[in-house]
């Protein structure tokens, strides 16, 4: 199974989840902070999620293009695609959702009034979600991305027979355009936002973020149709992506660009620039060879990344707050607790992957080839 995986994409996945977990680890030391190092680490954690989005779009778009190549463009094929996605994403999600509900019950905390919406991924569809199970916001975006564009694609395949590749491109561009129009509506009806409010009201809301995944669709389409071009200039794309990423954040720092003063930048420019700079890494990453030294570690982290993402914050980190007053804890105690947090995250996610996620995926692969 390990030989079937792409090492470069596994590395991307491992980097993304590492950025997320390290950003969460800073909460053992400070809550809200303007310290440059803390802000940088937490910014990179947010970038890790965007990297996941582009990677998901790249992989799912590749699966759909393979369906097109093999002439599997009937609605029965769409249903099989959805079933495979749901077997991949839903069991882990519902398991950790129930665990989070149980944690609140044990510590006599009230469930949010919107708890029912979490079972149908509506907790952040068009409005900010509650503070409960906060990391679930990205799962809602991914689930609707898997529903909306693939459905439109297969409708297009039915209408425009023998033009499936054109349908894939134009439907993707059309949905991205629809998202842009929704962003215009958001911008026109919003006066000013703090960084935190921008994140909850815009960055983590489904209808404004689907384009992050669909950029991955466009990328895999372009790389499939012009493979020689992307292979030839893969290092150039890597350097360009890194330059765009660095220049964007350097501009924000030097010019002190904030949502309160430059809302248009954070609505229309910042997130697409981050997604595109992440995407430019893929032509280089996809051709990377395995590393004998770190291959096992990268494989371990990559395969357990979904479980790590779901368990690390709400199910593990926040539990420390019920037992320890971190504000009054010594530095050595905070370091010790952070170390325990990292070990628990790896151990519990490994248990979830080994005894829950992997058996379900094996069952899926037997039933839905």
UniProtKB/TrEMBL annotation:
The chain crosses the membrane at residues 12-30, 36-65, 86-107, 144-160, 167-186, 206-223, 235-257, 263-286, 306-324, 330-356. Pfam families: Acyl_transf_3. GO terms for molecular function: acyltransferase activity. Coiled coil: none annotated. Keywords: Acyltransferase, Membrane, Transferase, Transmembrane, Transmembrane helix. InterPro entries: Acyl_transf_3_dom, Acyltransferase_3. This is Acyltransferase. It comes from Gelidibacter pelagius.
